[in-house]
Amino acid sequence: MTHVETSANGSDTRPGDGDVRVDTFELIDPRTGELVGRHPVHRAGDVERAVERARDAARWWADLGFAGRRKRLAAWRRLLVSRMDEIAELMSAETGKPADDARMEVVVAVDHLAWASRNAERVLGRRRVHAGLLMGNQTATVSYPPFGVVGVIGPWNYPVFTPMGSIAYALAAGNAVVFKPSEYTPGVGRLLGQTFEQALRADAGSATDPGRPVLQVVTGFGETGAALCRAGVDKLAFTGSTATARRVLAACAENLTPALIECGGKDPMIVDVDADLNAAADAAVWGAMANAGQTCIGVERVYVLEAVADDFLERVVERASAVRPGAEPTADFGPMTMVERAEVVAGQLRDALDRGARPLVGGTASVRPPFVEPLVLAEVPEDSTAITQETFGPMLTVNRVPDVDEAVRRANATSYGLGASVFSARRGEAIAARLRCGMVAVNGVVTFAAVPALPFGGVGDSGFGRIHGEDGLREFTRAQAVTRQRFATPMPVMSFSRSARAMRALVGLARARHG
Ligand code: NDP
Fold first, then answer.
1. 156 contacts: CB under 8 Å, gap ≥ 6
2. Binding-site residues, ligand 1, Cβ < 6 A
3. Model confidence over 294-329: pLDDT tens digits?
4. Global pTM exceeds 0.85
């Protein structure tokens, strides 16, 4: 995929300012080299104005309350479902991913949107908590009001599902959102914004109503994202690489803007002696190769117990050998969206082979940009880059381990900690509990991402904070605690007029309860 920044002939409009011309960039289909679209390059001033406009919209949106937002988010959901094929087609053109993968992404994203809007009131609405013995004369409640304006920066690999993990939950919680999609998927990002706007207009009963800028989309390159971090948003939700996350955090630090950071991973799979080897091999190959391996929670390393290693590898080789990349909608997976990333895969492959790894499927000739054919390597040295760095391509490493302890040790020996999977008939959950990461699928892969009630996020270089589920809703709110006095206490202690008797009673109570 290439970008061409244009000035004289390439122009578009600013968000909200119908006739102001701005520079644009072009987007090319990585499968065909054809032009897919042209999008504005929004500068710092444009981003600041978008955040400013969002302020009023945020108040209006918050005042709608949970029921009002639920109704409008349901309208958006219906629109996304009815336009699913169009969204999927554009996604395929921008990223190169097969049509069904694109559709599946929309389906799961819509499911999250539904869960977030249906559960927001239960999770975030004011609720009473026990005030405790010392403060027995108080009523204590907690609620979770929205921040106001949330900035969302998204990657290109799952351009609907991934940003929706922040957008849907931030909106359901009552925030307005300014979204900066990746420069590789601006069209999909803008389509999300347009469909939301359309849903609001339909609700207002007028196709010409300018609507409220509750969800705005700004497009451009890294500088546009950097401008969003500095534009005075109340929270910034970033999904992307660890290297960019460091820059995002530095920019957010300038205004003490809180940030949610979702970065890459180096997800391990552990295959136990009693695992269903067919299911494990199927999951390892799909988890590693789907979307050309460009999945933050894709399987990159397998640790298989020695006793079943040969049988497992035989099944992996059989399956991986049958998987084919291609430009056609029915291909198993598409090209590398960022074509230059093929060189990263080639580099890791060379490094692993030089250090003695055994190629079981594919080899150096498998990297033929924009495509990379399935690669399976065995006995890969643990200090090779294929093990230590995120590959983000269709390459799977499989290493044998003597026992579960060693599998867990190696699985955890990474600076990342996003997801993991375990195949085991009897001790899957026990192994899962020993893994240092945010999510684990037992006897499956990636399944946790499609359960809206489950939180999603990592540790270490994979980031911090959570999208999805109750934690994901709270992530876009500030907890507010309120106490209300029900009756005056006969012996006040939080007063300069407190008596010695009141203090004796207080200390006596503490001794009786905690001494
Ligand atoms: P990048 O880090 O390159 O970019 C992510 C986003 O940040 C893009 O929108 C990018 O804009 C923007 N950006 C770039 N520079 C800056 C900056 N200085 N300030 C603010 N924003 C900036 O990641 P990719 O898009 O290449 O995405 C792939 C990465 O994302 C992988 O590491 C993958 O594992 C991770 N990921 C993590 C997920 C998770 O949930 N944990 C889910 C999906 C992916 P532009 O594209 O215009 O440069």
1. 94, 95, 181, 182, 183, 184, 185, 337, 338
2. 153-158, 162, 180, 182-184, 221-222, 225-226, 229, 239-241, 244, 247-248, 262-265, 296, 390, 392, 418
3. 999 999 999 999 999 999 999 999 999 999 999 998
4. yes
